[in-house]
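Tokens as discussed.
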């Protein structure tokens, strides 16, 4: 076991504080990664504050991890010391179910093993990226292409793949009209990716405050959902609406914006249940769907896609001492568009 520095929440809703954790020895199929950068995802806050249910403490959040391999196990074939790598939201799965075999490890029938707030197959709790080092099986590690800075790449391991996977699955591309609902950490990546895929992209945001940013990142149109005229003007417009919002929505209003056979896809996960009038989907043969992250193969595809198109995330780099302040700013929507922790400050 190796002792490393980390930032952890000692209990639900408690401020994160500097501490040390134990990392397992490097096994035959493992890589030891020196973490360079770790993104702050809204789901880190949900889990550290038990918004999604009972959690495991102390908790070291962080599932947007970018770093460099410093040691490899004797059986490792994918990576070598010095490689630039990333780790996303999962570090294991059963590997045997139909979903795992199909490259959909995120939908493992037995449940994937989360990068943090989970229990690994060794029975030990998993600790995430707010730390200096992590040991991960090579099968759940991805390569960060040259041309992508490690700092701007870190958020792609969640925010990037969480938007890329559904946009690809629902065939977003030339000739398709897609709306990105919410212009935050996930939403800004949804705009970039949908634009790079060749779609006609609209941002739906509460206000027009971030309109200039949205258009600069690749949106063709930008509307405020606080304006009732938006829902009249855009009725029946979109093939796909990707909702990145983690607050409860009036789903019936947003479903009215879809064309026949359109899909409203949720990647934002509100803590409270939402209600729905089923006529909103029956009229128009519409789909109300959800999507998680992507599998390992698709995550690598997404990283290569972003590198090919010359973009990462829009980030604000912070020191580890600023994590608690950053959490409050995320909740206040005061970040453009992803906080990234410089792991050298841990």
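Sequence:
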């Amino acid at each position: 076991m190796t002792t490393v520095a980390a930032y952890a929440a000692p209990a639900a809703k408690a401020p994160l504080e500097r501490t040390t954790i134990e990392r397992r020895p490097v096994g035959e199929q493992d890589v030891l990664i020196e973490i360079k950068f770790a993104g702050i995802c809204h789901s880190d806050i949900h889990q550290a504050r038990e918004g999604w249910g009972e959690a495991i403490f102390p908790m070291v959040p962080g599932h947007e991890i970018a770093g460099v391999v410093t040691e490899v196990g004797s059986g490792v074939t994918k990576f070598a010391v010095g490689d630039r790598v990333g780790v996303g939201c999962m570090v294991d799965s059963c590997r045997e179910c139909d979903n795992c075999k199909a490259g959909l490890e995120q939908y493992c029938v037995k449940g994937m093993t989360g990068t943090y707030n989970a229990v690994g197959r060794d029975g030990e709790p998993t600790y995430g990226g707010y730390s200096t080092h992590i040991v991960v099986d090579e099968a759940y590690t991805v390569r960060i292409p040259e041309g992508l800075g490690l700092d701007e790449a870190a958020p792609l391991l969640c925010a990037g793949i969480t938007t890329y996977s559904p946009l690809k699955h629902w065939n977003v591309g030339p000739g398709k009209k897609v709306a990105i609902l919410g212009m935050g950490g996930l939403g800004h990546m949804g705009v970039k990716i949908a634009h790079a895929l060749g779609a006609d992209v609209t941002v739906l945001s509460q206000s027009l405050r971030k309109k200039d940013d949205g258009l600069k990142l690749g949106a063709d149109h930008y509307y405020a959902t606080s304006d009732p005229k938006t829902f009249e003007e855009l009725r029946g417009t979109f093939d796909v609406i990707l909702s990145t919002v983690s607050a409860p929505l009036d789903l019936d209003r947003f479903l009215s914006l879809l064309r026949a056979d359109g899909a409203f896809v949720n990647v934002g996960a509100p803590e409270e249940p939402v209600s729905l009038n089923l006529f909103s989907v029956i009229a128009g043969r519409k789909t109300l769907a959800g999507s998680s992250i992507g599998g390992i193969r698709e995550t690598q595809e997404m990283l290569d896609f972003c590198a090919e198109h010359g973009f990462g995330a829009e980030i604000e780099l912070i020191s580890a001492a600023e994590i608690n302040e950053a959490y409050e700013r995320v909740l206040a929507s005061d970040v453009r568009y992803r906080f990234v922790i410089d792991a050298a400050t841990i």
